Amino acid sequence: MDTNTSVDLVVARLCQSGAEIRSVAGAPWIDNLEARLGLSFPPSFRSLVNRYAFPLLDIGEMELFANEGEDSQYDLTAAPFRDPFMSAWLIGHRLIHVGHPYIGNYDPVCFDLSTPNATEPPVVQLNHEDILLQRQSVKRTVIADSFLTLLERTSVG
What distance in Å separates the CA atoms of residue 147 and residue 130, rounded to the nearest whole number? Predict the structure, then answer.
């Protein structure tokens, strides 16, 4: 099954369960966001955010930032940059902040682009206190081997 089909199946299932997801002809803010980050999203995530808009969205073990291009505090265009120290640290370590385990939990959930040769990098949760206290070792928990894997697990009922 190709990436777009996998994403479409998950979106259909999420919509059936009440998620507010709508098709869009494009999301020009994604290219601008990638340029600002200096990093590129994995193909499965690009498939989702370039073809669908949504408010905060529960995906498996995480709450994905909204994708509406509004610069609101929980939108993908603004949320990864709200904490300048955290943002700089994450980007410097090739991590793209795309969500949290749930609202109120400050641990970033990220794509770990530091993994060599990974077209679909792992999705990881990092301990925010380790980052903010500038500890030598930052605890990482792998949530899924890839965003596509996370989506496919979400689609299993």
Answer: 24
* CA terminus-to-terminus distance, the chain: 18
Please write the tens of the pLDDT for every residue from 35-66.
Answer: 999 999 999 999 999 999 999 998 877 999 99
Contact (Cβ atoms closer than 8 angstroms) between residue 80 and residue 95: no
CB–CB of 123/144 below 8 Å? yes
Q: Are residues 21 and 10 in contact, defined by beta-carbon separation less than 8 angstroms?
A: no
R_g (Cα) of the chain, nearest Å: 15
Domains of the chain: 3-155 (3.40.1580.10)
Strands (DSSP E) contained in the chain are 22-23, 52-53, 57-59, 62-64, 95-100, 109-112, 123-126, 140-144
Over the stretch 58-76, which tens digit does the pLDDT of each residue have?
887 799 999 999 989 999 9
Q: Which two tokens stand for residue 152?
A: 């496919």
pTM given for the model: 0.93
